[in-house]
Amino acid sequence: MSKAILQAHGVSKKFGSLKAVNNVNFSVNEFEIVGILGSNGAGKTTFFNLLTGLFFPDEGSISLKGEDITRMTAQERVAKGLTRTFQLTSTFDNLNVTDNLVLVYFRANHQTSAKELLLTTRKLFYNNPKILSTLETFNLLELKDRQVQHLSLGEKRRLEIAMAVLAEPEVLLLDEPLAGLADSEIRGVLEVLRRHIGKQTIVLVEHKISHIEKFVERLMVMHEGRVIAEGGYEDCLNHPEVRRSYWQIEAD
């Protein structure tokens, strides 16, 4: 049986009088894929920020592979194997697709800074097997020389996820990876994510729940900062509290 790789124990976060996250317990096993669902204001993004170190909890603790990371910075958590993609794509728009991947690979595998790489030559890494494999896996080969600012939103989203995967985090957190994408682009992003099932632990926040039904293994549903349901996809969506607070359907 897989063991828990990322856990939150009784985590809470207040902003003034608002308790954005209220005593949340959460656990994800190695190589598991878990979705976090909830309406706007449910506390999903704040909880993600707590997991990734952008906020520190007022109460509770967070552990990664059994190590307490509650007060570690976001950068320290990345070094420990926890990486997050943001809802807005975070790429180097003035560089081409391959250069973006090279910078991530270089930062993950070399002690010198990315600035030093920019001052030397990135082309030395263009034929690196991992760079070439990532371009192929994420359907980016035809775009490898294109400047990122000229990519479509779906292409840019694929690149961002490719960059996160290339950094080889043990836990990958995806913040609305399908936001703003057309159906054809959604299929492309999900296609490449499915190739990592069983190879990587993935936690994602997503509003387009019908698209992730066959992707996630488990759901956690939040409402007003609390966890109101957790378990299988169908069980969570049919939970009376989820029907009432998320779907706004009164239970019989």
What does this structure look like?
- The protein is built from nine helices and ten strands.
- The protein has a single domain (4-245), classed as P-loop containing nucleotide triphosphate hydrolases (Rossmann fold).
- The chain has helices at 44-52, 74-80, 97-109, 114-119, 129-137, 153-166, 183-194, 233-237, 240-245, and strands spanning 4-15, 18-29, 33-37, 59-64, 67-68, 82-85, 171-175, 201-205, 218-223, 226-231.
- The strands form two sheets. The chain has a six-stranded mixed β-sheet with strand order 6-7-8-3-9-10, sandwiched between helices. A four-stranded antiparallel β-sheet has the order 2-1-4-5, with helices on one face.
Task: Produce a short descriptive summary.
Helices cover 32% and strands 25% of the residues. It has a 6-stranded mixed sheet with strand order 6-7-8-3-9-10, with helices on both faces. Strands 2-1-4-5 form a 4-stranded antiparallel sheet, with helices on one face.
Secondary structure topology:
Layout: E1 4-15, E2 18-29, E3 33-37, H1 44-52, E4 59-64, E5 67-68, H2 74-80, E6 82-85, H3 97-109, H4 114-119, H5 129-137, H6 153-166, E7 171-175, H7 183-194, E8 201-205, E9 218-223, E10 226-231, H8 233-237, H9 240-245
Parallel strand pairs: 3-8, 3-9, 6-7, 7-8
Antiparallel strand pairs: 1-2, 1-4, 4-5, 9-10
Helix pairs in contact: 3-5, 3-6, 6-7
